[in-house]
């Protein structure tokens, strides 16, 4: 291993759970998450020679975000592919570690899938990956104020969707 | 879809601990005075808690084997000067295109080539294509800002040549 | 700390400084915060809307104003622009262009650091706008230090989208504009992406590559992205409102091969050629064995300070003044 620069395999091993969870929460199902994670690792592999050690997770967040937005836009123009953000498309999830919550998780994931991509991304990066607004701004390439307003509006939309779906807290 | 300006996004920043102490104090003062603001805070807190309550998932069996194999099999050459790696159009590895050089062929290519580099003895001559650089700029600025403003004016530009 | 983290920190500080204004309802800060919100809404609007529209585009070139009408459809962020002779299709990271010779595409793989807030450099003001395409609007203006507007955005009150945009020079003349003539919101026949298109590929770079120089900040702009093209490197700058691309290529500019519709100018001894087009100004010049192609939708005076900033051994204050007022006559 070169000084301080990990191999892509090491990134997959050490940050795979991070990549998978972001991808899954963005895409809503494992098939699409697999495509996203694979493409992200491909870009990681290409980009590692330029990588400067620093915020690896921030860099990975940016890659996954770009891969997701790119693929979602591509899919919107091919109606024969099921739309990942169509609630009816969400496949039953793989058995989660915490089975007690799995029914509720499905409902939340469904509501999340109903958000427009630009709002879903910052909400996932904030609440699933626990990135700072600054890191999210860096990952999505928008001003930090835009991050803040999209997170807020995304959460309000999510709340409305959860109410409509009958979820009370 | 009517959206009032008064979307109090400082409330989300408050929950995410993204405000400085003065701003926090100000938000708390206003929350104490306004039931409507408190209601908006509770809505957003509910959504935030719901998200943060989602369990960390483990990928299903076979997931990582498939991903690792997919990355290993992909045609990925490390980028060297002027030679680029696999294109990123679409994700379907089964239909992944062969690696392409960033140059063109044919009439469409002549119109679209950003640069034609002509190697003369001892000198490299650069001939930028004005239309092409302007459209390239529009492409990159369209997701930096407002896509309508970036792209609507490109129509007349592209049509001229 | 990486350059990018440092940039994020700076943007964070600027953003935090702007936040305190949100709580001060009296004065310019509140108006600026509202303007920033409205601009964010404008930028998000296309991805949340479906519409079909007719748009008039105008631009000033060598003293005369040109105009053309285009048709625009938007299907939740997938945009198509049809100008009769040409079409533009945009699906976010991929943009396609079609003229009589066929389709080609520009592939952009975004790898940006955080971009500046719209009020990072510009003073913003909100006021009531005039109706555009029969719809009520609010006006957001980006104003120079001397009070003259550089950009005016008439934003639809209902959806937040831009209905009229003007970029103005220092003398109040409209350099470029677009205006919705009519707008129909609602489902559209989905724009179709072309297939089998030859692609111009650019690969995002995480930092300035060796052998190239690019200032991290110049003339109020901040470097937000860089990418490698087949024969050069492109640097993308933003000042929060406008974007500027600088394509750098090693070699000698073949002046004779440039299109004829440009204006020859001289910048303190540096020869330059400028094109004023519908979407942007394009300026070409050489410096230290590198050919620079600057493309920006910013107003003419910003273009001048950018060129000046990119040729650093000419950067003294007196020369900037000479630069703006002297023979470098943009209009």
Structural overview:
The complex is a heterotrimer of chains A (169), B (161) and C (331). Chain A contains 7 helices and no strands. With 169 residues, chain A is mostly helical. Chain A has one domain: Winged helix-like DNA-binding domain superfamily/Winged helix DNA-binding domain (Arc Repressor Mutant, subunit A, Orthogonal Bundle), CATH 1.10.10.10. In chain A, helix 1 packs across helix 3. The longest helix of chain A has 21 residues. The radius of gyration of chain A is 16 Å and the shape is globular. With 161 residues, chain B is mainly alpha-helical. Among the domains of chain B are: 43 residues, no CATH class; 59 residues, no CATH class. Chain B has a two-stranded antiparallel ribbon. In chain B, strand 1 and strand 2 form a beta hairpin. With 331 residues, chain C is α+β, with helices and mostly antiparallel strands. Chain C has 2 domains: 183 residues, Clam (outer membrane lipoprotein receptor (LolB), chain A), CATH 2.50.20; 124 residues, Phosphorylase Kinase, domain 1. Chain C is globular and about 50 Å long. The termini of chain C are far apart. Chains A and B meet through helix 1, helix 2, helix 3, helix 4 and helix 5 of A and helix 1, helix 3 and helix 4 of B. Strand 2 of chain B pairs parallel with strand 18 of chain C, so a sheet runs across the interface.
Please sum up the structure shown.
The complex is a heterotrimer of chains A (169), B (161) and C (331). By secondary structure, chain A is mostly helical.
């Amino acid at each position: 291993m070169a000084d301080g620069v990990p191999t892509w395999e090491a990134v997959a091993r050490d940050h795979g759970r991070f990549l998978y969870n972001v991808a899954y929460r963005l895409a809503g199902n494992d098939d699409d998450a697999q495509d996203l994670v694979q493409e992200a690792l491909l870009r990681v592999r290409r980009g590692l020679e330029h990588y400067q050690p620093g915020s690896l997770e921030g860099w990975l967040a940016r890659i996954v975000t770009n891969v997701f937005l790119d693929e979602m836009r591509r899919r919107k123009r091919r109606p024969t592919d099921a739309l990942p953000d169509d609630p009816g498309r969400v496949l039953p999830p793989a058995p989660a570690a915490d089975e007690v919550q799995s029914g509720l998780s499905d409902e939340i994931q469904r509501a999340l899938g109903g958000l427009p991509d630009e709002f879903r991304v910052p909400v996932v990066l904030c609440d699933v990956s626990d990135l700072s607004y600054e890191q999210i701004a860096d990952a999505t390439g928008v001003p930090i104020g835009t991050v803040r307003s999209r997170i807020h509006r995304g959460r309000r939309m999510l709340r409305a969707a959860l109410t409509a779906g009958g979820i009370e807290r | 879809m009517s959206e009032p300006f008064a979307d109090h996004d400082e409330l989300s920043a408050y929950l995410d601990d993204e405000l400085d102490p003065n701003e926090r104090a100000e938000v708390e003062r206003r929350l104490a005075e306004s039931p409507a603001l408190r209601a908006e805070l509770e809505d957003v807190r509910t959504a935030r808690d719901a998200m943060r309550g989602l369990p960390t998932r483990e990928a299903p069996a076979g997931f990582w084997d498939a991903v690792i194999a997919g990355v290993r099999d992909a045609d990925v050459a490390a980028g060297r000067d002027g030679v680029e790696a696999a294109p990123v159009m679409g994700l379907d590895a089964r239909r992944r295109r062969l690696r392409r050089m960033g140059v063109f062929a044919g009439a469409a290519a002549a119109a679209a080539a950003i640069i034609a580099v002509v190697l003369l003895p001892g000198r490299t001559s650069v001939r930028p294509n004005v239309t092409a650089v302007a459209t390239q700029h529009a492409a990159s600025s369209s997701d930096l800002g407002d896509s309508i403003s970036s792209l609507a004016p490109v129509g007349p530009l592209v049509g001229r040549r | 700390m990486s350059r990018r983290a440092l940039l994020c920190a700076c943007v964070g500080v600027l953003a935090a400084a702007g936040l305190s204004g949100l709580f001060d309802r009296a004065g310019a800060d509140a108006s600026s915060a509202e303007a920033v919100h409205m601009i964010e809404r404008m930028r998000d609007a296309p991805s949340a809307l479906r519409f079909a529209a007719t748009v008039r585009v105008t631009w000033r070139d060598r003293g005369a104003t040109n105009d053309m009408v285009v048709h625009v459809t938007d299907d939740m962020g997938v945009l198509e622009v049809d100008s009769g002779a040409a079409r533009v299709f945009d699906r976010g990271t991929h943009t396609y262009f079609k003229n009589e010779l066929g389709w080609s595409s520009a592939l952009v793989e975004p790898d940006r650091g955080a971009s500046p807030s719209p009020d990072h450099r510009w003073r913003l003001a909100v006021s009531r706008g005039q109706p555009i395409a029969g719809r009520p609007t609010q006006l957001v203006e980006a104003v120079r230090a001397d009070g003259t507007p550089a950009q005016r955005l008439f934003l639809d009150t209902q959806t937040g989208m831009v209905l009229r945009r003007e970029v103005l020079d220092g003398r109040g003349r409209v350099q470029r504009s677009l205006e919705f003539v009519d707008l129909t919101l609602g489902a559209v026949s989905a724009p179709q992406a072309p297939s089998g298109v030859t692609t111009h590929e650019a690969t995002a770079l995480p930092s300035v590559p060796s052998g190239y120089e690019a200032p991290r900040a110049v003339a109020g702009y901040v470097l937000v992205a860089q990418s490698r093209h087949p024969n050069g490197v492109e640097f993308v700058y933003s000042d929060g409102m406008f974007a500027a691309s600088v394509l750098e290529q090693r070699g000698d500019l073949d002046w004779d091969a440039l299109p004829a519709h440009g204006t020859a100018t001289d910048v303190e001894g540096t020869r330059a050629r400028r094109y004023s087009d519908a979407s942007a100004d394009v300026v070409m010049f050489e410096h230290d064995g590198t050919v620079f192609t600057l493309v920006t939708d910013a107003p003419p005076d910003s273009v001048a300070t950018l060129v000046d900033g990119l040729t650093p051994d000419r950067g003294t204050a007196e020369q900037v003044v000479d630069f703006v007022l002297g023979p470098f006559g943009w209009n």
